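Worked example 3 (structure in, sequence out).
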């Protein structure tokens, strides 16, 4: 699951991962045992970026293979949540080497395509602009 934390200025929170050649992605990861996906995405945002967040809505439930991610030998369904920042400060972790906020036209070119794709980021901004959009799925 991935958390798209977008602030009032319309900037999205991204982290540079230590793995995958230090590419940028939305904070996220696997759901932990005894946590809901929403609880897990809030935890992942905090662990990877230092920021606290609150989930606003589930934006997408997408099959990884059908979205255009590099192939894997198994199937994964990814959940993308739109979140709002509620506090904290930029803090890296064992998993991240940098934390940054980016406007829609400032997204880094070196994305971790196994985790986050450009068209998925565009959908996060679209849902931020219009929270009434329905959850997307494939």
């Amino acid at each position: 699951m991935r958390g798209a934390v977008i602030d009032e200025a319309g900037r999205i929170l991204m982290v540079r991962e230590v793995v995958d050649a230090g590419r940028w992605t939305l904070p996220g990861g696997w759901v932990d045992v005894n946590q809901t996906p929403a609880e897990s995405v809030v935890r992942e945002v905090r662990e990877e970026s230092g920021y606290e967040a609150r989930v606003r809505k589930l934006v997408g439930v997408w099959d990884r293979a059908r979205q255009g991610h590099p192939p894997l030998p198994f199937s994964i369904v990814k959940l993308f949540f739109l979140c709002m920042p509620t506090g904290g400060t930029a803090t890296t972790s064992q998993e991240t080497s940098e934390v940054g906020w980016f406007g829609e036209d400032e997204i880094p070119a070196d994305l971790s395509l196994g985790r986050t794709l450009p068209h998925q980021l565009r959908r996060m901004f679209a849902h931020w602009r219009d929270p009434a959009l329905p959850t997307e799925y494939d």
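Notes: The chain has a mean pLDDT of 97. Residues 37-49 form the longest helix (13 residues).
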